[in-house]
Amino acid sequence: MTDSDYREAIRRSGRIVFFGGAGTSTESGIPDFRSAGGLYEQRTSKMYAPEEILSRDFFFDHPADFYSFYRTHMLHPRAQPNAAHLKLAELEREGRLKAVVTQNIDGLHQRAGSVNVLELHGSVHRNRCLDCGIFHPLAAVTGDPRPVPLCPECGGIIKPDVVLYQENLDFDLLERAAAHIRQADTLIVAGTSLTVQPAAGLVSLFRGDSLVLINLTPTPLDRMATHLVRGSIGEALGSL
Fold first, then answer.
1. What is the dihedral of CA 175, 178, 183, 186, to 10 degrees?
2. 193 appears as a binding residue in the annotation
3. Is 114 annotated to bind ligand?
4. Which of 35, 37, 205, 218 is the most exposed place for a label (fewest CB within 10 A)?
5. CB count in 10 Å sphere of residue 103
């Protein structure tokens, strides 16, 4: 189902906010989590489920097993921005898109040229030494041949600056995202199941004119949408 009026709603908007999830990056070759072919539906380990591996306790108890999974399934350094990322960056350059709020950790919005990106779940491109606190780029993880990457400054364990299960989201970042959504006249929600809290709850704060919801499958908030698009995010935004 495609609501062609969503294009006109976006064209006449001057204060757009984008809220996106893993589906935004599937067209860049990065798998999502909860779809039929997503990461959580695949048995990637004989002993542990992905949700267990991607938890804070597991990281500290089994760092080598964590990094074996993380390096294999969570890192996609060769992925390139798709049509959706590029269109959003264009809308920001025009001054009409005020913020990108993303649940993704891949950094593709920034690579496409977006500047005001609020990464609710962190980024694979930031990695912090647990001992000295120094931040390191992605290469510190991908380029270290050891089972667990260590800080070149002090030898401490490096932890990705991503939000794992059992960890809280950054409160200030959530407040900034909430403020942008409250002030938007159009909110584009795309590529997210809208089942992960508290991030998904941000959508309910929207009080503007047009809620454009783009997703391949139904979500709990479809009834709230003024424009509902079933299909490719890249095609939906790239065709503007």
1. 150
2. yes
3. no
4. 37
5. 22
Hey, which residues are catalytic here?
Answer: 121
**C-alpha span between 149 and 171 (Å, rounded):** 28
Name residues whose C-beta falls within 8 Å of residue 139's C-beta, 6 or more positions apart in sequence.
none
Element (H, E) at 136: strand 135-136
Read off the pLDDT of residues 102-156 as tens digits, 9 standing for 90 and up: 999 999 999 999 999 999 999 999 999 999 999 999 999 999 999 999 999 999 9
Query: Residues in the chain, how many?
Result: 240
Q: Are 234 and 84 in contact (CB under 8 A)?
A: yes
Per DSSP bridges, beta strands 158-162 and 122-129 are antiparallel
Check whether 192 is labelled as a binding-site residue.
yes
The domain defined by 1-28+78-121+169-240 folds into Rossmann fold (3.40.50)
